[in-house]
Amino acid sequence: MSRFNWPKHSVLVIAVLATWLTTYFGYLTSFNMSIDNMVQQLILFINPLSFLLLVYGAALFIKTSKRRNAYLITISAITSIIMFANAVFYRFFSDFITIPLLFQTNNFGDLSSSVMANIHGTDIFFFTDVIIVALAVKFIPQPTETVRQFKMGRRIYFIATAALFMVNLGLAEAERPQLLTRSFDRELLVKNIGTYNYHIYDLIIQSKSHAQRVLADGSELSEVENYVHANHKEPSVDMFEDAKGRNIITISLESLQSFVINQEMDGHVITPFLNELTKDKDTFYFDNFYHQTGLGKTSDAEFIVENSIYPRNGSAVFFTHSGNTFDSMSEKLADNGYFTNVMHANNRSFWNRDIMYKALGIEKFYDVESYNIGEGQAVNWGMKDIPYFEQSVQMMKDMPQPFSSRMLTLTNHHPFDLDDEDMLIPPYTSNSKTLNKYFQTSRYLDESIKVFFDELKENGLYDNSIIVMYGDHYGISENHNKAMGMYLDKEITPFDNAELQKVPFFIHIPGNGKGKVMHELAGQMDIRPTVLNLAGIDAKDDLQFGSDLFSKEHEDFVIFRDGRFVTDKYVYAHEVCYDAETGEPTDGELCAPYVERATKELEFSDTIINGDLLRFKDGQGDQQPQTEIKGKE
Ligand code: GP9
Ligand code: MN
């Protein structure tokens, strides 16, 4: 067109800029992502760029201008379609697209009916870049052949692209440590690494699990079943009368460890209400109970509660295997007439819950949209536990009974921040800010449970319910050993660190009268068998690694996800066998048979998940239940 002398790669530069800006404005207009500070805004702004430079940059290898132009237009069209599809999907699901969701056939029904309704005329905006690229291609003259001496320039281009990607990752990692290994929230991923990279990441994770699944066959299942049935413990029958037919409320006590129970910090009682419960005649309190979670933390604990199977090592099973078939506690309870639901005032995609709950057959998910978070009612990660419990009870009043509600608390979460008015005790005074604040948030969590019990009573739900409560995982990691040592007044060894994985476990049955402190060695794996047995539901043919805690046959052997274990005689940690009584290292041979069994059990559990083996179990695999996600009405 004009006589203006366009630089050689103008079209490429225009394409990158056009798609970059279209993507960024797409983020701002179509997704409801919370941006808390300037750094997050900056990350959001730059996150599409490295990917776009890379894919558009591939054009530099294409020799003829005709093909190069076709390639550039195709890329702009594909990226536009990705953004457009996510925007439409988001309007319906408040979430980004993920592959397992597309393969859950029952979602297609929802999708097709709502796709049309959710397309807006203004969505043409997502294709702005395609139009710009097409115009650029048409009007800007380009070299017909790529010139050889451009090799050096090309190299610099891709090095710069890689550097930009690293800067993006670095900023994201600083904002959200362990983003890729742990914080599996799609919103966080998109915010930090961008939609395009997120889709590639999703694709890698999903195809990895898919490959293992394809190779698996039913014969592996019988081997695991043989092992599990050989270790089967006959459940007790004593408790049925008091528990059967009642609502079951299972509460995840965020980050609560047993070392605060029945203890003081500088003369302040840390958990007065829970302490009372440990002495209460209607409560069974387990003081030798361990968490068995890995990187998936809260979600791993949920996974164990639902399945009595180990979560995965090194990744969150909620994220990697949400397409599997499960035989969950919720599904079982639903089959026996319970209305099953989860109540958690966080966004639905956190830990991939919205998808995983479908696979677990949970009937309803009351997520953050179900709650009214008024002024002063949020701190740290979100809604405070006290208003959360208050509002939850109001929702419970409208549930059909009996119901099974799993509740997840949130305030006692790292970094343990609290508003002044909620600090019921002063902070501790160690070198660890984390531990210092932890006592205060634990105190707040305790208070919230008290409020919850009162609300249940006031609203007539208490007598007809049983309340099961477990600490989900540690709150204080080994990085705080020095401060913990100060509090416990001893030097912390790997033996102590294993002991510190104890979390409180309560079963509260109003009117039962037989409550006591139970000392058996137990773990989260035992929750499913125990709860189902209390409800009088037969689970003897289920594939569970745990067993009923009221059974006389219960075995004193708890395996951690990382391979450590505890028996009544030994504690095995960091490949050292410790005497459980003295805490001193002892002869490794004494632990050897348990090491073998722990390894085998963890391997069996991994085989089930990796091969999606439960789909081969009779009566499984054909139904895909729907989780209704409850928003404000
Ligand atoms: C988030 C909450 C906390 O929804 O469950 O997760 P965590 O970081 O403890 O796994
Ligand atoms: Mn947690």
TrEMBL record:
What membrane topology does the annotation report for this chain? Multi-pass membrane protein
- Which InterPro entries does the record cross-reference, listed alphabetically? Alkaline_phosphatase_core_sf, LtaS-like, OpgB/LTA_synthase_biosynth, Sulfatase_N
Q: Which domain of life is it from?
A: Bacteria
Pfam families assigned: Sulfatase
Q: Which residues form the Sulfatase N-terminal domain?
A: 246-537
**Where does this polypeptide localize?**
Cell membrane
Its keywords, alphabetically, are: Cell membrane, Membrane, Transmembrane, Transmembrane helix
Q: Which residues span the membrane?
A: 12-30, 42-62, 69-93, 113-135, 156-172
Which family, according to the similarity comment? Belongs to the LTA synthase family.
Name assigned to this protein:
LTA synthase family protein
